[in-house]
Amino acid sequence: MAYVDIVTVLAVLQFILFGFHVGRARGRFGVKAPATTGNEIFERFFRIQQNTLELLVGFIPGIYLFGRYFSPLWAAALGVIYLVGRQIYAAAYVLDPGKRSLGYGLSFLPVAVLLIGGLIGAVWHLIHG
Amino acid sequence: MAYVDIVTVLAVLQFILFGFHVGRARGRFGVKAPATTGNEIFERFFRIQQNTLELLVGFIPGIYLFGRYFSPLWAAALGVIYLVGRQIYAAAYVLDPGKRSLGYGLSFLPVAVLLIGGLIGAVWHLIHG
Amino acid sequence: MAYVDIVTVLAVLQFILFGFHVGRARGRFGVKAPATTGNEIFERFFRIQQNTLELLVGFIPGIYLFGRYFSPLWAAALGVIYLVGRQIYAAAYVLDPGKRSLGYGLSFLPVAVLLIGGLIGAVWHLIHG
Q1: Which among B9, B15, B49 has CB closest to A119?
Q2: Cα distance from C105 to chain B (closest Cα, Å)?
Q3: Alpha-carbon gap, residue C126 to C117, rounded angstroms
Q4: C100, A32 in Cβ contact below 8 A?
Q5: H/E element holding A96?
Q6: Is the peptide bond before C34 cis (omega within 30 degrees of 0)?
Q7: In this predicted complex, what is the ipTM?
Q8: Disulfide engineering: A117 pairs with which of A66, B59, C78, C80, CB 3.0-4.6 Å?
């Protein structure tokens, strides 16, 4: 499971990086805490971080379940696709929120496969011992 | 633990479903990203998703700890109550935010029992080996 | 790992407590759901909770990976620093958002150490078996 552990930490570090971008955008665009609105570009950085949080909370259990019931290596590979997809998502969203679909799909799909795979694996294990 | 795995994936899929409702509400009520305000009904869907995220981050460690220290079957049963409670919460909130208490309680309580149970189990394990 | 389990539950309970403060602030400052803006003090309580959620999603995998690859006791000790740091963060933020840096650093740093430590441990395990 070391592969899965590595990709999981990378996904969290990527999320933390997106959080740093939010902090930097606070200063750059003059959005003082606790506000999270008031500047369109700041709001893009903020939504990138928040949307990544929403995916991460499914990604983490998904990658471990898929890794346990199927293959740690395939789970990690799907995790790498997620990481790349999130980078594309972030880069596109910040330039134009209307162009976020490709990166979103490329990072959402691996999460869906990891979760559905984990679900099938768990049901299979329950039936066939 | 296969029961716990299944209920965990179902809880994440339910959260993803709430996220789809937010995306659909963006189009229906004309709330363009990165905005998350501007339409009351959109904001209800958004808060349902966000509040579920807040519970899920406690639900997942809670169900695994309760499952390990007490019983996977009881952990999964509490998880099913959580799932039903969240559906009631979402259905009520979207119609009238003032009526969200029942569903909230019904989904918060299992999370509290899972976490407190897990805490008691861990302390017990530490003392009695 | 019982030490790690205990600190993990305490971190989630602390987050739930911050959530209760948000709920109480809704009533006290008249911010009706689904709104999350409109009163500066409410927004501070809300941002404390949200920022804690953002850290918690890295804290939980971090503490378990550090505990597995290095030492459960050291992982739990870093977790206690996180807990104290978050309390300082919350207490300072609510009085003056400009003074949140110390508590933020004191709770972010343990999370960074747990995650980087977990990453190093996993890479080491992969190379040296």
Answers
A1: B9
A2: 22
A3: 14
A4: no
A5: none
A6: yes
A7: 0.96
A8: A66
At A129, is the pLDDT very low, low, confident or very high (cuts 50, 70, 90)? Answer: confident
Give B30's DSSP letter. T
Whether C99 and chain A come into contact, CB under 8 Å, resolves to: no
Q: Is the model's pTM score more than 0.95? A: yes
How far, in Å, are C51, C56, C58, C108 from residue C111 at the CA level? 13, 9, 7, 5
pLDDT in tens, A75-126: 999 999 999 999 999 999 999 999 999 999 999 999 999 999 999 999 999 9
Shortest distance, CA B46 to any CA of chain C (angstroms): 8
* Contact between C5 and B118 using a beta-carbon 8 Å cutoff: yes
For B41, nearest residue in chain C (alpha carbons): C34
pLDDT value at C129 more than 80: no
Closest CA to B14 of C121, A57, C99: A57
The alpha carbon dihedral of B59, B65, B66, B72 has a sign of positive
CA-based nearest residue to C125, from A91, A6, B85, B128: A6
Q: What is the pLDDT of residues C12-50, one digit of tens each?
A: 999 999 999 999 999 999 999 999 999 999 999 999 999
- The beta-carbon neighbor of A9 closest among C54, C57, C115 is C115
Cβ neighbors of B58 (< 8 A, separation 6 or more) are: B111, B115, C12, C15, C16
Q: How far is CA A80 from CA A57, A75, A76, in A?
A: 16, 9, 6
* Contact (Cβ atoms closer than 8 angstroms) between residue B63 and residue B107: no
Q: A54 with B49: CB under 8 angstroms?
A: yes
Contact yes or no for B111/B55 (Cβ under 8 A): yes
List, for residues B58-70, the tens digit of each pLDDT value.
999 999 999 999 9
Q: Answer yes or no: is pLDDT of B118 > 90.
A: yes
Q: Contacts of residue B115 in chain C, CB cutoff 8 Å?
A: 9, 12-13, 16
